[in-house]
Amino acid sequence: MSNLTSLKYIVFNSLIGEIAIVWNNKDKLLKQIILPDVNTGKFNYGKIDYHGVLSETDPDDYIMEVMSDVKEIIMGKDIHFDYSHLDFSILTDFQRIVLLKQKDIPHGRVTSYKKLAELIDKPKSARPVANVLSSNPFPIVIPCHRTVRSDWTIGGYVGMNDGLYKRLILENEGVQFEKDVVQKKYRFPSEDLSIPYL
Hints:
25% helix; disordered C terminus
């Protein structure tokens, strides 16, 4: 088990408010990304899942790069993150399978919980899949904002009932909605085989 005193966190501003990153300073593994409170836009220290985490005010180049990547993704940029730097060790096998498949949903495309369940060969597990995404420890980096309800409406985001951040990020990626429903051309896998994957 990691020495808890090696855990650090930093809070930084983004387009959607204050975001925190928690990481192990020894091996540079990311432990958690925490989105701002949807009502205040502020970071809530109580959302950190670990004890003994120390504040960092002078991060190294790697953490600066992670912060930059997170901000760029929120603004709609197609950033290819190195997933080997995410700490999956506390996740169950099912959580890991769901999140690793989720990271494969292309930029500017959206799938549904039901479709994602089918993509992991567990077609009856849409609700468990949704539960995994609602507790995704790495939002933005593992783009759970690209998965919506089976009726293609936004739904909640990372345990929040409000999908405000989710919609903003998707719109920044170019996804368009019609009466709060994701337009067909942005759905993944494509429902119309004549539409190529992006």
